[in-house]
Specification:
It is a single chain. The chain is α/β, with parallel strands linked by helices and about 425 residues long. It has four domains: about 15-110, 3-Layer(aba) Sandwich (Rossmann fold), CATH 3.40.50.11060; about 120-185, no CATH class; about 200-370, Rossmann fold; about 370-420. It has 14 helices and 13 strands. The strands form three sheets. It has a six-stranded mixed sheet with strand order 6-7-5-8-9-10, sandwiched between helices. Strands 2-1-3-4 form a four-stranded parallel sheet, sandwiched between helices. Strands 11-13-12 form a three-stranded antiparallel sheet. It is elongated, with a radius of gyration of 25 Å. The chain binds guanosine-5'-triphosphate and magnesium ion.
Amino acid sequence: MKKLYSLVGEEKKERVILLTVSRNPKERWEKFDGLKEMASLAETAGCEVVEQLIQNRRKYDTATFIGSGKVQELKKISHEHKIDTIIFNEELTPSQKRKIEDITERKILDRRELILDIFAQHAKTETAKIEVELAQLKFRFHMLQGAGIELSRLGGGIGTRGPGEQRLEVDRRRIRTRISRLEKDIERIEKSQKTQTKRRSRIFRVALLGYTNAGKSTLMNVLSDANILVEDKLFATLDATTRLIEIDPLHKFLMTDTIGFIKNLPPQLIASFHATLDEAIKADLRLHIVDASYENINRHMEATRNIMQKLGIEEKRTVIVFNKIDMIPTEEVVERLLRKFADSVAISAKDGIGIKGLLKAIQKIMDKDTEIVDLFFHPSEGKKLSWVRERAYVIGERNDKEGLHLKVRMEKKDINKLKNCNIREI
Ligand SMILES: Nc1nc2c(ncn2[C@@H]2O[C@H](COP(=O)(O)OP(=O)(O)OP(=O)(O)O)[C@@H](O)[C@H]2O)c(=O)[nH]1
Ligand SMILES: [Mg+2]
């Protein structure tokens, strides 16, 4: 049987055409940009991008998205260039996808499947693997709606790779059973995460967020000895890594590096990464890392903000960090960015520029929201002590014959509550 796709270590790469549709001149630039990003995604997934096509048409065709004449043309091009797969930078309905597949006799994928495939290849931890498989199965379940046929024609390659060695199911009933198993697993993971977070007490938490490839993991590695994989590829990181970072003994915080975002990330995908993103959602402060060397940073920043909003993350607790300033030829450009965005800092994680300034900014925010106080607890004040332990980060403690002396960092509002608390324990 003829092999259509490449596996790790094999020579032949899956040959793909990328395609997008522009409905008006205004949309065109945006679509071009999207296609460029799609090409990086396809290369990250291990394909060879042979052609990139943009079609101008005022309306999407209900049956075949691009119109039956164009599908015939696609078939011809695919034959001429020995194309294995056609990837649309659009969302196709199950029936559109099947029709195009029938006519072109090629595997048809859309943006969501390509992203899912990269996720499937990059998932390393148990949580990430479950999350990816769940997202893939939910997507597959949706695509099989009303389809009486199985997807065996896919054969292999992109869109068929699942986490670990598992082949993805194509039977709706079995998919449903597996989905509910995985959902239970996720529930269990989230529960154990909650206990873990509680045990960490109230240490200040900082999360790194931003577009994929912005340099989040590079920064994390610079600030700690995390040794996270850094690659010039999209979605190098899919799981969450947390490290304790100490600016000085009075300013310690936990930093979490996690999955990057991308424009038009399907909402179901965001939802399925809830367990991984949990630390970022609940953090006290978020660093929004932006690749300042990218020509259209607004596009990336807006996509990140959109996803943050969908996750219910407040933007007011966010510092914008312009990274990769070593790639910017003039200082004026950086200065303009810093002026334009309040609460922003500029760094080069790779060259270690601006890191001190970033830490100062974090320190300032820690000091604004929290305070260090010395507390004393008489042995009879057990309840008060456990109330404090639940909310405060203990910097130091000392016992003497009178009772317990604690040095803690605590939110200012909790300190006020404590001051106003006249409960006498008996
Ligand atoms: N020139 C330059 N390159 C950088 C800098 N920081 C990161 N990079 C490069 O950018 C690429 C992506 O870096 P990562 O740290 O993996 O980015 P990320 O945000 O963690 O990406 P994902 O995990 O895919 O979301 C790598 O090739 C890094 O070497 C920087 O300050 N300057
Ligand atoms: Mg990363």
